TrEMBL record:
One of its GO terms (biological process) is cell adhesion involved in single-species biofilm formation. The lineage of its organism: Bacteria, Bacillati, Bacillota, Clostridia, Peptostreptococcales. It comes from the Bacteria. SUPFAM superfamilies: Nucleotide cyclase (SSF55073), PYP-like sensor domain (PAS domain) (SSF55785). GO terms for cellular component: plasma membrane. Residues 112-239 form the GGDEF domain. Residues 30-85 form the PAC domain. This is Diguanylate cyclase. GO terms for molecular function: diguanylate cyclase activity.
Length: 239
């Protein structure tokens, strides 16, 4: 299936729509980010489309074709998107992260493709107390930018609130790739300047077959606790 005009974040669910209509369902619908066919630059000019596919049957109840209807809902989605974002960092908020991660897990119950990272700023209260909340907010924004630059556009990046962030890395099977990512991330999250010094502790867990959101979050939290117990400014992975 050619998905060249579909945003990376929508490709899985886009393909699922067509698989479903080929099966027993008579009508299916989904919402996707689609790049306009005449767009000259890749990954620009995406719009939100609601696509509905309906089977058409002959007099013997045999499906003979599929009717597709698309609707541009970009304006509607722009309002919804604002409700999914953290107001300071513009990352996903907790509710949206949970929803999107659960959607991915439901679509990949039978495989082990994914990893959850839980990132906590070490001694963040000290940063706020010693340097003020403006410096604290600047640190949060810097961390958000680092996370965005170190992960792919398809990965889910979230500020849970306060000094905690989380990332769900999609379609990753190789534990060595995750270890490499954790090492690079841990090094990038060391802030050492005349103004302040700050580090982060990171807990990571690999997705298993039939993992739930609650499973992954619980183990990532335990892993992050281990990183704290071992002296902070490091990462700990549960395979």
């Amino acid at each position: 299936m050619n998905t060249g005009y579909v945003h990376e974040n929508s490709k899985d669910s886009f393909c699922q729509l067509f698989y479903k209509i080929q099966g027993s369902e008579s009508i299916v619908s989904g919402v996707f980010q689609i790049r306009l066919a005449d767009s000259k630059v890749e990954y620009e000019d995406y719009i939100w489309m609601r696509i509905t596919l309906t089977k058409v049957f002959d007099e013997n109840s045999v499906p003979i074709r599929v009717l597709g209807v698309s609707e541009d809902i970009t304006e509607e989605m722009s309002f919804k998107e604002k409700a999914t974002k953290d107001s300071l960092t513009n990352l996903l908020n907790r509710a949206a992260f949970r929803q999107y991660t659960m959607q991915y897990l439901a679509e990949h119950m039978d495989d082990e493709s994914g990893a959850m990272f839980l990132i906590d700023i070490d001694n963040f209260k000290h940063v706020n107390d010693q340097h003020g909340h403006v410096s604290g907010d600047e640190l949060l924004l810097n961390i958000a930018n680092i996370l965005t630059s170190h992960f792919r556009s398809e990965d889910l990046i979230c500020r849970l609130g306060g000094d905690e962030f989380t990332v769900f890395m999609k379609h990753v099977h190789d534990i060595e790739e995750v270890r490499k990512k954790a090492k690079l991330l841990s090094e990038a999250l060391i802030f050492n300047s005349d103004k302040l010094f700050s580090t982060c502790s990171i807990g990571i867990v690999m997705k298993k077959v039939n993992s739930t959101y609650e499973d992954l979050y619980w183990y990532a939290d335990r892993a992050m606790y281990q990183a704290k117990q071992q002296g902070k400014n490091q990462w700990y992975l549960i395979p």
